[in-house]
Design a protein that fits this description.
about 500 residues; alpha/beta; Alkaline Phosphatase, subunit A; nine-stranded mixed beta sheet; 13 helices; globular
């Protein structure tokens, strides 16, 4: 982590100096033991800028794996079992349920909003008795390891702002994402690997709607650039331009970087731009990654039993199964935050054609990841999150038959699951109405989700901030956010 003194603005310098003088004066009056405590707090604040004394809370998790299903999985077809809907097949959604709520332009012109019950059977599983669709048989086996949250909600109704909000806490692009905030607050566990890594998993459904995503979703925004996510590619060259060209030895590269660093430090001393410090840190990280990344991405040493656990796709670079194995290897080696993006979950039509393939990509690997972490004694301090950016409507978009239907965007309620890292296993949290349209108990806003994730990492979301454009920027913003105690162990 860079020296935080190079990141101070003039206002921050004088503010910190005033606080330090006041603490020292108080300590001198109250005795040496308090002085020692002040020193420890000051050292912690220097090491973890923006946090103050670390930890704010007793941390349950040390690292995070975020499995992001881009496009919005249908909660009605996966986790939110609504058997009463069979009685309402092809009937219009009652106005008493819709309550004039906002629709997308894709269905706002429909003359009818016919109800489309899920065609997939559900069953209860585990000691928790959680209802899970037949599309997720492997997830069903681990319901006692996970907490299913059925009442997440958002204001965003279209993919671009919704994905941005889910990742950064704001619908407006340019903010720092969750992984960058965690990197900024907690720092690195391994100096040879990035603190925050992003993986892109292929999907096996070429006919589905595929939402575009870009690096702004794993950007550090206004935070120092070193906290941005590093995207690893599948294949023989995980990071473009990382290897040295032919004829350039490690010693030659080291000498070149030493010379470049000396020039950068001279410029840093002259202008004080913290981005120069970030650039120095990134060059050094890239040099170390030249040795660490090839070993990380070489799965040939994994035992046959591990490949069997993750499924046949685990041997194919770029698949979700392969990425899940790589995520485990990353956190095992000290990466703080790993995010896997899996696209293709946007089923506006032909849901029965597309959704089973999407579930097939991720179901067994997700089960394997949880069991793998558990077997290695890592699940207890690794937080795993699975979910998308919003839910799907109970009414059909386009033609409806008893075997085929599509669903539009639905921000009012959707489901996700969490496991490990201080999450209470075997919990089904929250409830929605009979149409999976409105929340009837225990709502969880995205701000609450972010506050809960930070809390599990030992961070008080209200105290994690970064001064930018005269404001104390926070992941959870300025509106109220609450940790969700019902899913905490």
């Amino acid at each position: 982590m860079s020296d935080p003194r190079t990141l101070l603005t003039r206002r921050q310098f004088f503010g910190a100096s005033a606080n330090g003088i006041g603490r020292a004066a108080l300590a001198s009056m109250l005795g040496g033991s308090l002085l020692e405590g002040v020193a420890r707090a000051s050292a912690s604040a220097s090491r973890y800028p923006g946090l103050g004394t670390l930890p704010h809370l007793a941390p349950k998790a040390r690292r995070v794996i975020y499995l992001f299903m881009v496009g919005a999985p249908s909660q009605i077809d996966l986790f939110d079992y609504k058997p009463v809907l069979k009685e309402h097949f092809d009937k219009d959604l009652p106005d008493s349920i819709r309550q004039g709520q906002r629709l997308t332009t894709m269905t706002s012109g429909q003359t009818r909003f016919p109800i489309a019950p899920s065609i997939y059977p559900f069953a209860r599983h585990g000691q928790s008795g959680a209802w899970v669709s037949e599309l997720l048989p492997w997830t069903a086996k681990m319901v006692d390891d996970i907490a299913i949250v059925k009442t997440v909600h958002t204001e965003a109704i279209n993919h671009e702002p919704a994905v941005t909000l889910m990742n950064t806490g704001n619908q407006i692009a340019g903010k720092a994402c969750l992984g960058s905030w965690v990197s900024y607050g907690l720092g690195s566990l391994n100096a040879d690997l990035p603190t925050f890594v992003v993986l892109h998993a292929k999907h096996s459904n070429p006919q589905s709607n595929v939402q575009a995503i870009s690096a702004r979703l794993w950007s550090a925004g206004y935070l120092p650039a070193e906290h941005s996510g590093v995207a690893l590619r599948s294949g023989a060259d995980p990071v473009l331009f990382l290897p040295d060209p032919p004829g350039v030895s490690r010693g030659m590269r080291r000498a070149m970087l030493d010379g470049l660093q000396a020039l950068n430090r001279e410029t840093l001393a002259d202008v004080g731009d913290p981005e120069i410090q970030a650039r120095i840190a990134q060059y050094e990280m890239a040099f170390r990654m030249q040795a660490s990344v090839p070993e990380l991405t070489d799965l040939s040493g994994e035992p046959e039993a591990t490949f069997n656990l993750y499924g046949p796709d685990s041997r194919k670079p770029g698949t979700f199964a392969h990425c899940a194995m790589l995520a485990r290897r990353l956190v095992e080696r000290g990466t703080r935050f790993v995010q896997i993006y899996h696209r293709g979950w946007d089923q506006h039509n032909n849901l029965p054609r597309d959704l089973p393939q999407q579930c097939g990509d991720v179901d067994q690997p997700c089960f394997a990841l949880i069991q793998d972490l558990k077997a290695r004694g890592m699940l207890e301090d690794t937080l795993v999150i699975w979910g998308g950016e919003f839910g799907r409507t109970v009414y059909c978009q386009g033609p409806l038959t008893d075997k085929n239907y599509g669903r539009d965007h639905h921000p009012r309620c959707f489901s996700l699951w969490m496991a490990g890292g201080g999450v209470r296993p075997g919990v089904v949290y929250g409830e929605t109405d009979d149409f999976s349209y409105n929340i009837t108990r225990d709502p969880v806003h995205i701000r609450d989700l972010h506050a809960t994730v930070l809390s599990l990492l030992g961070i008080d979301h209200a105290r994690l901030s970064f001064k930018f454009q005269g404001l104390d920027q926070k992941l959870t913003g300025v509106e109220p956010a609450h940790v969700v105690p019902g899913i905490l162990a």
